[in-house]
Amino acid sequence: MAPANESFPAALARSGDPVFKWFTISCAGTMLMLLVGIFVILVWRSNLSIRKFGFSFLLSQEWNPVIGEFGALSSVYGTVVSTVIAMLLAVPLSLIIALFLVELAPQSISRIIGGAIELLAAIPSIIYGMWGLFVFAPLMADHVQPFLGDIAGWLPLFQGPPMGIGMLTAGLILALMILPFISAICRDVFRMVPAVVKESAYGVGATTWEVTRKVTLRYGARGIIGGAFLGLGRALGETMAVTFVIGNDHTISPSLFAPANSIASTLANEFTEAFDPLYLSALIELGLVLFVLTLIVQLIAQIWLNRMRKAAGGGL
């Protein structure tokens, strides 16, 4: 309780704390309500498809609006495979670029390349998609896919005609799209490593590689993982960049050269055509699958981070 002789300005200033507290609580609670609200709406609007197909919706690759048969397997397969390709390429390259900018590059070079990375991260995904369709896909068809077919054509992954568009091209475009995003986060994380820690390592005779491996990477492990999972979340839900180059075919093929689709590309291509209630409900259920898949990925990320923190004795 405020003292009886307290002035009005002082009492007003003191009341700011509870106002600020409840304002921040309401803002944070809004995010939780938004998350729950999106989930409820997706379940509600996909109820027709859920009741008709049940769990088989996730196991069937049949997608035929004419006869009213829908299955999510080909879209889930395309989403997962294109994202895995993107992450396998983007995460190591992002780490190398970030380490070069922080540990090895002169300040002038670091500023120029850092600015270019931030510009690339800000480019809309549709630009990546258009560039992928008109420039990258012909390059893949004329040079990269024939080369891969010659040296590794005995693998099912690299068999089939080199058409340019397909799962491999979509994965590479996704990798190029999330590469600047993860690089920028890792660069900022590495810059936050205290200089005194690195100087101490240099002082006891450690080389640049040893400082990078044992100090910089270890100190920034949580930030690296966080950046990687943010990139993963963006890759999972990417729409336009993938839609331009993946081929949009509801068929599961072992070949990475073959056209495929993803959940996001299916929604982008077919939502305006879905006048039948069951068709629309199946598309919304696809969105529900993507929503749950993203939540599972983030949950796994949090569990993994907690285990790493405990294994390191709270040092991460």
Please give the alpha-carbon distance between the first and last residues: 42 Å
CATH architecture: Orthogonal Bundle
Given as residue ranges, the uncertain stretches (5+ residues, pLDDT < 50) are none
CATH class: Mainly Alpha
Tell me the β content: under 5%
Rg, nearest Å: 25 Å
Structural class, judged by helices and strands? mainly alpha
How confident overall, as mean pLDDT?
Answer: 88
Helical fraction equals over 70%
Quaternary state of the chains: single chain
Going by CATH, the homologous superfamily would be MetI-like
Q: Which shape, going by the Cα principal axes?
A: globular
Q: Numbering strands along the chain, what is their spatial order in the largest sheet? A: 1-2
Total domains: 1
The CATH topology corresponds to MetI-like fold
* Helix-strand string: HHEEHHHHHHHHHH
Main beta sheet: 2 strands, antiparallel
How many β strands by DSSP?
Answer: 2
Transmembrane segments: 20-44, 84-105, 117-141, 161-182, 223-246, 278-301
Protein name: Phosphate transport system permease protein
Main location: membrane
Membrane topology: Multi-pass membrane protein
